[in-house]
Amino acid sequence: KPVPPTVARRSVFLASGMAPLLRLAGASSAVSYASAASARGASNSSSEIAKVLLDPKYPEVFPFGEKEMQRYDESSDFMFYAQPRFVKHIDDDAIGALTKYYKEVFPAVPTDGDDKVALLDVCSSWISHYPEGYEASANLRVSGLGMNEDELKKNPILSDYAVRDLNEDPTLPYEDNTFDVVTNAVSVDYLTKPLEMMKEVNRVLKPGGLAVMSFSNRCFPTKAVSVWTATGDLDHIWIVGAYFHFAGGFEGLAAEDISPKPGKTDPMYVV
């Protein structure tokens, strides 16, 4: 925010006359955490993933409509997520890579005398993959918003949590300018109202705050939106970048491939 399972990867056309999406062959005075993350992305700009957002050539209007946001299973998400899943949705190597990335871009854990820090994990669960030390304390707020209360109750780092289906109500139940960082891990592919949600992310971020959307190539394919299941990894970078771009209010858009062992473990990407 500015200061003040394997799925078939088919080519997809966004609209009449548009080129197909990209493909990946083979597989203020305010502190600005966003600037640091963006600079990090720029230093890794030689990767194919990073290049996607260097010149994404977005159209004038948001290219995704109701058709692209449809899912194979349009039944209630609350019903789908009613049973708690105390499992990891990416492998341990990918989790480790994400945790390492968080450690490098998050504000430092505050100590006595430091300004308070607030983090929000959207689409949270029983685990947030945050680095050691990032847990609720007098100076550190860690909020979680997710679909299953039993899972959220088990998350040991949270100060507070809220249960919400963002596909029914994409608003975030927090005041403006509340959080230094907002994260979303391996869940952006399920959002059917991504623009509304990203506008809310911008609203609740403090000036200079950082939003991190991370994802792999694993998902519940019946619940992921159709534009996601029809495309590949490079496309997904472009799609998530479009969510930021068209929501407005963000700067320093960058992508990074943080996959720990390409071809051997789950891939991991951040925008």
Looking at this protein, list some descriptive labels.
271 residues, seven-stranded mixed beta sheet, 8 helices
Short characterization:
By secondary structure, this protein is an alpha/beta fold. The chain has helices at residues 33-43, 48-52, 77-80, 92-105, 149-154, 194-204, 226-229, 233-247; strands spanning 117-124, 140-146, 160-163, 179-185, 205-215, 256-257, 269-270.
Word description of this protein:
About 10% of the residues have low confidence. It contains eight helices and seven strands. The two termini are 13 Å apart. A seven-stranded mixed beta sheet has the order 3-2-1-4-5-7-6. By secondary structure, the chain is α/β, with parallel strands linked by helices. Strand 4, helix 6 and strand 5 form a beta-alpha-beta unit.
Write the layout of secondary structure elements.
Blueprint: H1 33-43, H2 48-52, H3 77-80, H4 92-105, E1 117-124, E2 140-146, H5 149-154, E3 160-163, E4 179-185, H6 194-204, E5 205-215, H7 226-229, H8 233-247, E6 256-257, E7 269-270
Parallel strand pairs: 1-2, 1-4, 2-3, 4-5
Antiparallel strand pairs: 5-7, 6-7
Helix pairs in contact: 6-8
Q: Please provide the ordered H/E string of secondary-structure elements.
A: HHHHEEHEEHEHHEE
Regions with little confidence, pLDDT below 50 for 5+ residues? 5-30
Share of residues in helices:
25-40%
The shape is globular
Which structural class matches the secondary elements?
Answer: alpha/beta
Task: Count up the helices.
Answer: 8
- How many beta-strand runs? 7
Query: What kind of sheet is the major sheet?
Result: 7 strands, mixed
Strand order of the largest sheet: 3-2-1-4-5-7-6
